[in-house]
Amino acid sequence: MKDGCNGVNVTILLWSAILAFPAAWRMKVLGLLAGSLAIQLMNVVRFISLFYIGQYSTNWFEFAHGYLWETLLMLDTMVVFWLWVSRVSRAGTVPNAGD
Amino acid sequence: MPAISLNPQTRFLLLGSALLTGMLILWWFVLLNPLLFLLRGAVQVCGGAVFSGRSELSVTEAPSGDWTFEVPLEATLPRSLENPTPQQMHSIDFDLARSDAGAFTFGLPVYWAIMLAAPGIRRNLRPLLLGTLAMVVLEIALLLVTAEIYAHKALAQLLPSQDPLGNWFLHFSEYLSVSAIPYVIPFAVALWVDRELREQIFHWASAAPLPAEAAAISAGNRPGKRPRQMKPARKRG
User: Fold this and answer.
1) Among B27, B34, B129, B181, which one is most buried in terms of CB atoms within 10 A?
2) pLDDT in tens, chain B (237 residues)
3) Residues of B in contact with A83 (CB under 8 A)
4) Shortest CA gap A54–chain B (Å)
5) A95, B204: Cβ pair inside 8 Å?
């Protein structure tokens, strides 16, 4: 298992987005913790599915490992960020486009 | 049977995951070879323009499917035990595995999947077309940058003096261009071209209304409020 396989790259991406977004620090900390947990949970599902795909076919493993799961994790990260921003906006700190 | 109502995030995640899986399977089985062929041709043409003034960039495909790049690069190799006189280099060769070259084509189906899962795309196909064009340009540019990075990495291995900072920079640049940027580009381009998706995710209140909101405003409704019910016009007299 390499560094990139532990979901650290998408976690860093999510952390950068959350830290750069104008929101209260309490919300940011909540986003960092809950977001990292969501990504790690998804990564566990990824590991399990890759294990079974690897038993079935090396070609499918290469496809799922190199492309499919990488992009699914990116999509998951994007949605986690979207959910967090919705939560922040409900809490009452919605930034404007010009800010 | 009552329809299941999902929030936009869940809908985007489910639809996006299904479309990503479908699009990537289509790419893996059908689109990969034609896209690799087109990419190789485009890189040769664009590389000729980018590296003009120096010798031509050439990309050839080996029977295994791997690509061999010949990148123009002027350098002087110092004297060594094997070469008693300094040698002038005009180009450098390196191989790029077929799977690594494929990473510069898979952004397109990923981008299509994101855009087709995005809310409101059926009303406006312009972002889909504009983004596809942007993706093509960015993928070609990224492969040219990657070729330049690999060429400098290969050169650094030939030079006796090692620069730790320069080597670290090349290693980091390689990681970004091969393992990070190709995966981020489709998402970044989707957010860049699709205003509705961008505003939904970032919850930005824009100065100009979205196309759907503009239509509602022109019909006499305000966004965020319940539309007024049209009463039938009463006949006067």
Assistant:
1) B27
2) 566 778 888 999 999 999 999 999 999 999 999 999 999 999 888 887 776 655 577 888 888 888 988 888 777 777 776 777 777 878 888 888 888 898 899 999 999 999 999 887 666 788 899 999 999 999 999 999 999 899 888 888 877 777 788 889 989 999 899 888 999 999 999 999 988 888 888 876 554 444 544 444 444 444 444 444 444 444 443
3) 9
4) 17
5) yes
The verdict on residue B212 lying in a domain is yes
Q: Does B99 touch chain A (CB under 8 A)?
A: yes
- Given an 8 Å threshold on Cβ–Cβ distance, is A62 in contact with B99? yes
> Is B184 touching A (CB cutoff 8 A)?
yes
| Chain A contact present for B208, CB below 8 A | no
Give the 3-state secondary structure of residue B74: strand
Domain count of chain B?
Answer: 1
Q: Which residue has the tokens 């489709």?
A: B186
A contacts of B114 (beta carbons < 8 Å):
75
A67, A89, A97 member nearest B207 (Cβ): A97
Other Cβ atoms within 10 Å of B7 Cβ, number: 11
What ipTM is given for this predicted complex?
A: 0.85
CA distance B6 to B10: 6
CB contact under 8 A, B12 and A86: no
Residue B124 placed within a domain: yes
For the entire predicted model, the pTM comes to 0.81
Q: At A19, which amino acid appears?
A: L
- Whether residues B106 and A81 touch (CB distance < 8 A) is answered with no
Closest residue on chain B to A12 (Cα): B180
Look up the domain containing B182 and give its range: 8-218
Asked if residue B228 belongs to a domain, the reply is no
* Domain annotation covers residue B95: yes
Name the region of B227 (left: φ>0; alpha: ψ -120 to 50; beta: rest).
beta
Q: Is A79 on the interface with B (CB under 8 A)?
A: yes
Strand ranges of the sheet holding B58-61, from the earlier edge strand across to the other edge: B58-61, B67-77, B87-96
- CB–CB contact A67 B28 (8 Å): yes
Contacts of B163 (CB under 8 A, 6+ apart): B156
Would you kindly state where each structural domain of chain A is located, as residue ranges? 6-86
